[in-house]
């Protein structure tokens, strides 16, 4: 099952002055159940590529297929709806809503989607068990550690049962113990629930945990650890 198929995608900034090829003719194919790290130096295009795949930004060239739907053809409103239903996002700076409790942050998207209370409650309970924070549901983000906030952000990303989760430098603001703990949770969700993760990172310890590593330099994919093995499998 292919979940992400970026086809010949480019994003060019400053077209009128000195063009920057932030993403340059990228082809990327991600199957359901992958646990893939996107790596590369600062400015190599990781955030731009994740934004294109997540429909937060549109490419100047190419197409992005999510489950066979070309999201570059969607209107702004259709994209908002598509993202809510299909893609989970985790950000470097957690981005939880400070006035809401951990539970309310996770529940929010389900409220927007009109999911009824009994189902919301069951889903929230399951998610807090999965992030190992059953005892923190009623606590606000400021009272949680960074690692705990990011685990809540992962639960929030999963609340609407997305097709995959995009995480842009999810461990960048965490100490190494919390980063390792977050990776444990993500890896467990990948293994046991078959959640597909695509995450960018600089952190060597995080890279080591990935099953596939794609390296970007100057907006181009320069290496992909899956390239060799998939050829052999076919
Ligand atoms: P990374 O996430 O790997 O650090 P980015 O995707 O943030 O890389 O950036 C890729 C390139 O695109 C960089 O040269 C960056 O300066 C440029 N860039 C990113 N966003 C913008 C923007 N909004 N306007 C102009 N240039 C940008
Ligand atoms: P984690 O490994 O999940 O990041 P920590 O070991 O950092 O958790 O935190 C342990 C406890 O300390 C947590 O229960 C949390 O409530 C509390 N704590 C940590 N950092 C903060 C903080 N910045 N503000 C409030 N409480 C914090």
TrEMBL record:
One GO term describing the cellular component: plasma membrane
Keyword ATP-binding applies: yes
SUPFAM superfamilies linked: P-loop containing nucleoside triphosphate hydrolases (SSF52540)
Domain ABC transporter: 4-234
An annotated Gene Ontology molecular function: ATP hydrolysis activity
A Pfam cross-reference name: ABC_tran
Superkingdom: Bacteria
InterPro entries (UniProt xref): AAA+_ATPase, ABC_transporter-like_ATP-bd, ABC_transporter-like_CS, ABC_transpr_LolD-like, MacB-like_ATP-bd, P-loop_NTPase
Keyword tags: ATP-binding, Nucleotide-binding, Transport
Similarity section: Belongs to the ABC transporter superfamily. Macrolide exporter (TC 3.A.1.122) family.
Protein name: ATP-binding cassette domain-containing protein
Organism: Chitinophaga oryziterrae
């Amino acid at each position: 099952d292919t979940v992400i198929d970026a086809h010949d995608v480019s994003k060019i900034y400053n077209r009128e002055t000195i063009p920057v090829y932030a993403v340059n003719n990228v082809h990327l194919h991600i199957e359901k159940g992958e646990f893939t790290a996107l790596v590369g130096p600062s400015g190599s295009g990781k955030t731009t590529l994740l934004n294109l795949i997540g429909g937060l930004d549109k490419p100047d060239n190419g197409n992005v297929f999510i489950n066979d739907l070309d999201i570059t053809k969607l209107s702004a409103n259709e994209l908002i709806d598509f993202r809510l239903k299909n893609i989970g996002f985790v950000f470097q700076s957690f981005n939880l809503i400070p006035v809401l409790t951990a539970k309310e942050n996770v529940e929010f998207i389900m409220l927007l989607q009109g999911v009824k209370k009994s189902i919301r409650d069951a889903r929230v309970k399951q998610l807090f068990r999965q992030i190992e924070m059953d005892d923190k549901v009623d606590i606000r983000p400021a009272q949680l550690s960074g690692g705990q906030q990011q685990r809540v952000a992962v639960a929030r990303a999963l609340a609407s049962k997305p097709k995959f989760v995009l995480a842009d430098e999810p461990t960048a603001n965490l100490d190494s113990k919390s980063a390792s703990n977050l990776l444990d949770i993500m890896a467990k969700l990948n293994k046991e629930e078959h959640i597909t993760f695509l995450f960018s990172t600089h952190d060597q310890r995080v890279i080591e945990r990935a099953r596939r590593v794609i390296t970007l330099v100057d907006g181009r994919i320069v290496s992909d650890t899956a390239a060799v093995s998939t050829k052999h499998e076919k």
